[in-house]
Amino acid sequence: MLQLLKIQNYAIIKQTEIRFEKGLNIITGETGAGKSILMGALGLILGERADTKVLLPGSEKLVVEGVFEVNNAELQYLLEENELDSEKQTILRREINSVGKSRAFINDTPINLPLLRSVGLLLIDIVSQHQTLELNEADFQMNVLDAFAESSKILDDYRIVFKQYKKSEQVYNDLLEREAKARSDEDYLRFVIHEISELNPKIGEETDLEAEIKLLSHAEQIQTSCFQSSQVLEGNENSLLDQLREITGLLAQSSKHQTALPLILDRLQSNIVDLSDIAEELSSIADKTLSDPELLAKQELRLQELMNMQKKHRVSGNEELLDLLAKFQARITEIGSLEEEIIVAEKHKSELFAKSLNLANELHSKREEALNPMKLKVLELLNDVAIPQAQFEVKLEKTNDENLHSNGLNQLNFLFSANKGFPIKPLNEVASGGELSRLMLCLKSLISDKVELPSIVFDEIDTGISGEAALRVAQVMKAHSAKHQVIAITHLPQIASKADNHFYVYKNHEEDQTLTQIRTLNEEERIHEIARMLSGENPGQAVLTAAKEMMSL
């Protein structure tokens, strides 16, 4: 329930506070006094967009604030989900400064406009002639039928399962797509696997081949140098080692008489041993190093094949080539495993589809049962708002099982004719603005006891009606307000006379500026206002009496 609306520096409103009560809150005033401005201000705290054009000239900032009494479990959940304080009172505030910067708050916590809109939808429902266009929307019509049929719980259950089904369908389709792609790539994958496997690369093989090719390329040079060196050391007559042995023999006799010579002899003996080993190793290398042009060509070809394969697949070595082989082998294996995943996914999808279908059929049955009672109740309410010859039908169609959607298996259309003898047609083809307004009032009243409706604002939906029709609309609106807060902007005395709380909007001329103000009327002032609405300014006693009688009806 909207308890308090504060407006500061909005359009031609400098500052005002409106304290709304339970029941029927009526707002009246002269044409152009600014009644529609109140709706604009209210729209701001419900998340509508605005710019600096709505700022009172000469002001730095406009502020609109609404204080709501909250008794709505869905709203409390939404606030808590967004880490906002959930209290008995919820305060929505909107501020716009002179440079167009807008800020929104809930309980003094800054929030974004989408969240403000979501919260606002749970607090206030504004019905105007423009907004009665939603009567033609399939979702609105389905919501009305489900509210009347009390099938919302089944619908919630269905949508949970249906969402799971759509998700499982996507998983299944993704698997099919992956398998199709894998199948289309299979020949290429197998070809690459075959050519790499046949080449049989080894990690580090390129380094070994390069070393061997280098050796084979210089085999004659290596053989000659090692053989000649071994000959110089020991193989020739008067070789280096023979000379060293002769030196040791010469020094051996003298070493008995010179203490330094034994140490020199030991060193010579050690060098002779080392050089003898070197000569033997050089001879062995010379014997083993053979020039082999065929082997050289073979190893060069092997290295070239590896390089070509690496270049072909854009890798930098045998290790990456083997990684590619493993990757492609895994993809081939995946084709087989995907088949198993697809079987499981298809079964899961089918189970959820069957569950969704059962709930959709249950939902259809529940809706179908409500069609005739709803039709009769709407016709009764249309008679109450002075459309006694109205015809109203709810056309509920059931689609094929394969056409499941968010509302189940049903397509819905409200058909209407305000006059006897004329064919019923969709609402946008037959109803006038005034008739749509009254039909909207009937539908809101129809479901008011079945769902937790927010406060409702009727913004001049009485346009186009008068006399008995106006009185009937007033009675229905009054009945609706017994259980739900109703705020109505009206120009009809019949509706104004039913007010529990009556507000009057007027212009006040202050120096060089005209401002809109609003005040609550007492009993005497209400009589004069209704009399003014009946006959114009300065009503006579007879009109005042008529106004008083109208209020007592």
Would you give an account of this structure?
- This protein has 553 residues and is an alpha/beta fold.
- Among the domains are: 1-123 and 454-471 and 478-521, 3-Layer(aba) Sandwich (Rossmann fold); 181-335, no CATH class.
- 56% of the residues lie in helices and 18% in strands.
- The chain has 17 helices and 15 strands.
- It has a 6-stranded antiparallel beta sheet. It has a 6-stranded mixed beta sheet with strand order 8-12-13-3-14-15. A 3-stranded antiparallel beta sheet has the order 9-10-11.
- The longest helix has 67 residues, at 318-384.
- The protein starts with a strand and ends with a helix.
Structural topology:
Blueprint: E1 2-10, E2 13-19, E3 24-29, H1 35-45, E4 61-69, H2 73-81, E5 89-97, E6 102-106, E7 109-111, H3 113-121, E8 124-128, H4 138-149, H5 152-199, H6 205-217, H7 219-235, H8 240-254, H9 261-288, H10 293-312, H11 318-384, E9 391-398, E10 410-417, E11 425-426, H12 427-430, H13 433-447, E12 455-459, H14 467-481, E13 486-489, H15 493-496, E14 501-510, E15 513-520, H16 523-535, H17 541-552
Parallel strand pairs: 3-13, 3-14, 8-12, 12-13
Antiparallel strand pairs: 1-2, 1-4, 4-5, 5-6, 6-7, 9-10, 10-11, 14-15
